[in-house]
Design brief:
The chain is α+β, with helices and mostly antiparallel strands. The chain has helices spanning 14-23, 51-54, 57-62, 107-116, 127-142, 149-162, 209-214, 252-258, 270-288, 305-315, 338-348, 372-383, 421-428, 438-446, 458-461, 471-481, 483-507, and strands at residues 3-8, 31-38, 41-48, 67-73, 88-90, 96-104, 165-173, 177-182, 191-197, 200-206, 218-222, 227-232, 237-241, 264-265, 268-269, 296-299, 318-319, 323-325, 349-351, 360-365, 388-393, 432-435. The strands form five sheets. A seven-stranded antiparallel β-sheet has the order 3-2-4-1-10-9-11. The chain is globular, with a radius of gyration of 23 Å. The relative contact order is 0.11.
């Protein structure tokens, strides 16, 4: 899960990119980066940290130019060293900077190709740098001193042929413009919009439409699966489908958890889809517990609030805010290490005793991944005097690893893996556990766009839409990216960050 943005404008873009990245901060809290271009020169700033920590006034003054791209990151591949913050850039065949949201499932194979066949060098363990070099090599193969939109689209076609996984990409070709493209299955989102100014039309591409809204851009549409868009420096826009058989199968987790509720993804209003999730949960309560004794429904802030409110309305049960959230603590399931996640839950949420005391409480969360948050929240509810604690998830049970850009790599770290719903309830200490049915979750989203063929539901059903993920791949992934592996990477990242800081001080 990362956030990307690219802008072609008539005036300096640094502040607009900064604002867009701030709006997309929920998609990545580990690192941030921006590259702008003025003439034929890149201006780069990237580092670990939140957007407002990475970009200070002195950096913004140096990020000049009317075209640029930006990125917010949390690591699913590689390490969390600042050297692996994005965007990355190369100087051949042109100056190209690239940022990427997602994960390549054939990254190891591509690395071998990049070294042996493409004769290119990769400096980090990031699959985004691999993707950049594949794209650059395919542009080089076009053999054009001055590339046209068709040349760029032909290069994207070859990228799709070589690359597998879920990815949304934005790249800047210095002196020419910005290109963005989406994987053939449409797993990761990307949208573009237009802003009219006295100097002429300006364009933005971004992970979510909310980034367009806050910058005054009018949303045009989502990129289709496999589609590419090129915006030249004059503001001319070209699009082309770059694969023969695209399939729209967006990630279900985007609608449940990742995206902001005020975004529209693939014509589906995320807020409305979460309202429908709450209705489906209420209907399941009526089926399974028609004589339920729920006194109050309490959301786990913030993502589940919409579904919980509609669930309460549909059941005719009181809705209350029972937890106050410290908004300066990051998302816990993406934190590196169970110990750190456990400590962060207590720092992040504080219960209001009067909403729990002597009541039968239904807690509602968007999903349960590792169970760390859920277990401690149930315990807090009991400590506040709740008579019974029920727990509902707006998503089905997460039982399988994610390989398309969400940090759920190790099956044995998922609380529902190998457990029944009742066993999950016991594990988190709840009196009753209620999961959303997968068909109901799909229906809550497809109701907003009946052209969606299916969804990437791999974390729920173990079916990987790219068709290249097997048990051996998952085993290798788990070895690389479980908590123990990340602990080892953390020590390396610290020393790497110190070296990278020296380099960034020269570039920024």
């Amino acid at each position: 899960m990362c956030g990307i943005v690219g802008i072609v404008a008539k005036t300096y873009v640094n502040q607009t990119i900064f604002d867009a990245l701030t709006v997309l901060q929920h998609r990545g809290q580990d690192a941030a980066g921006m590259v702008t271009s003025d003439g034929n020169r890149f201006y780069l700033r990237k580092d670990n940290g939140l957007v407002n920590e990475v970009f200070r006034t002195r950096h913004m003054k140096r990020l000049i130019g009317n075209v640029g791209i930006g990125h917010v990151r949390y690591p699913t591949a590689g390490s969390s060293s600042s050297a692996e913050a994005q965007p990355f850039y190369v100087n051949s065949p042109y100056g190209i900077a690239l940022a990427h949201n997602g994960n390549l499932t054939n990254a190891e194979e591509l690395v071998d190709q990049v070294f042996k066949a493409d004769l290119r060098h990769v400096n980090t363990n990031s699959d985004s740098e691999v993707l950049l070099n594949v794209f650059a090599n395919e542009l080089l193969a076009q053999g054009k001193l001055i590339p046209t939109a068709e040349d760029i689209f032909s290069a994207v076609e070859r990228v799709h042929e070589r690359v597998k996984g879920g990815y949304a990409v934005v790249a800047m070709i210095t002196g020419y413009g910005v290109v963005a493209f989406r994987d053939p299955n449409g797993i990761r989102p990307v949208v573009y919009g237009k802003r009219e100014t006295p100097q002429g039309d300006e364009y933005m591409v971004a992970s979510e439409s909310v980034a367009l809204d806050t910058a005054g851009f009018t949303r045009v549409r989502d990129l289709a699966p496999g589609e590419a868009i090129f915006i030249d420096l004059e503001g001319n826009v070209s699009t082309r489908q770059c694969v023969k058989n695209p399939h729209l199968t967006p990630c279900l987790f985007e609608y449940v958890y990742l995206s902001r509720p005020d975004s529209i993804i693939d014509e589906v209003n995320v807020y409305k889809s979460r309202l429908r999730q709450g209705i489906y949960l209420a209907e399941k309560v009526k089926r399974e517990r028609p004589d339920h004794d729920i006194d109050v429904i309490i959301p786990i802030p913030d993502t589940s609030r919409t579904a919980a409110l509609e669930m309460a309305n549909h059941l005719g049960v009181t809705f209350r805010e029972g937890f106050i959230k410290n908004r300066y603590i990051g998302r816990t399931f993406i934190m590196p290490g169970q110990g750190q996640r456990a400590k962060s839950v207590r720092r992040k949420l504080n219960p209001i005793e009067l909403e729990f005391k002597d009541k039968v409480v239904m807690l509602v969360d968007d999903s349960i991944v590792r169970g760390t948050t859920s277990q401690q929240i149930v315990q807090m509810a009991r400590e506040m005097g709740a008579k019974k604690v029920y727990f509902a998830s707006a998503a089905p049970a997460v039982r399988y690893p994610n390989v398309y850009g969400i940090d759920m790599p190790a099956a044995d770290e998922l609380i529902a893996h190998g457990r029944t719903d009742d066993e999950v309830a016991d594990a988190i200490g709840a009196d009753w556990m209620l999961y959303q049915d997968l068909d109901d979750l799909k229906a809550s989203i497809s109701a907003g766009n009946d052209t969606i063929e299916d969804f990437d539901a791999s974390v729920f059903d173990g079916i990987y839409v790219t068709g290249d993920v097997d048990e051996n791949y998952l085993a290798r992934l788990e070895q690389k990216r479980n908590d123990a592996a990340k602990a080892g990477q953390g020590a390396k990242a610290q020393s790497g960050s110190n070296k990278s800081a020296d380099l960034q001080s020269q570039l920024s």
